[in-house]
# Entry
Amino acid sequence: MVNRMNILKEKLKETGFKITPQRRAIIEILLKNNKDHLSSEEIYDLVRVDCPEIGLATVYRTMQLLDEIGVISKLNLDDGCIRYEISLNKEDTHHHHHLICKNCGKIMEVKEDLLDSIEKEIQDLYKFKILDHDVKFYGLCPKCNKR
Ligand SMILES: [Zn+2]
Ligand SMILES: [Zn+2]
Ligand SMILES: [Zn+2]
# Structure
């Protein structure tokens, strides 16, 4: 985590992004909870614990800046709320895929990219050059499926 913070800091410095204590607190929350795909409101609730004076507008603005710099990626589940995760290095850029539980809302990540062969087939069939894909699977997580 220390490592990621340093990489992130370097990137932010390159772009002239100023690390204020509030922004730093937001970034730390993001790094600590990266697997949770937090929304701005959830980030706000977590940051407020250590940083009670922070406003929701600051969180929105910071997320917007981090997005412009290209160090976070957004996950849109079409539920009116955008979730974020830090996405730093090249292998993060092709985004992993997500499994979304219809029952409890849990979001899991698929590490393997199994779609290369499908891409190739589509390219051959439709003469369409695929540059990227974004896939979400909806279903039941192991816990909900047991019920
Ligand atoms: Zn579930
Ligand atoms: Zn993710
Ligand atoms: Zn993929």
Remarks:
- The chain has two domains: 1-93, 96-147.
- The beta strands are 38-39, 72-76, 82-86, 97-101, 107-110, 136-139.
- The CA atoms of residues 31 and 86 lie 7 Å apart.
